[in-house]
Amino acid sequence: MNDKSSIARKGDKHRNAIGRRRRIYVRVTENELTRIRSRARKAGMSISAFARMRLLGDAEARPTLDIDIAELRKAFADLKHAGSNLNQCARALNTFGADGDSAASTDRAVRRVSVAADNICALISAARG
Prior knowledge:
Layout: H1 3-15, H2 30-43, H3 47-56, H4 69-96, H5 100-128
């Protein structure tokens, strides 16, 4: 009996309690294995559970993320305030004209708000799975 069948049988006995008796062997490169491990760890899952979820596309098997809703709401409120301030700046610049310093300051503010919006969108996207 070769090592693989011996290992498979031992694993099968262990998995019988939950009904998983079959194995799938997949060959991957070191880089692919590293990426799979990393993604499984980020999802808070074992490699086997992660692979089953991805292979089967089972929405119910997806992990839930623990996101602090209060922090997300605060970030969203801050983003709304920043957007309102930028709107007022744009109106003033359009009404009275802009010098080089005002335009540069406004550009920096727009970039910071854009980064904040991207971060919030990433959190929401991660929460949706």
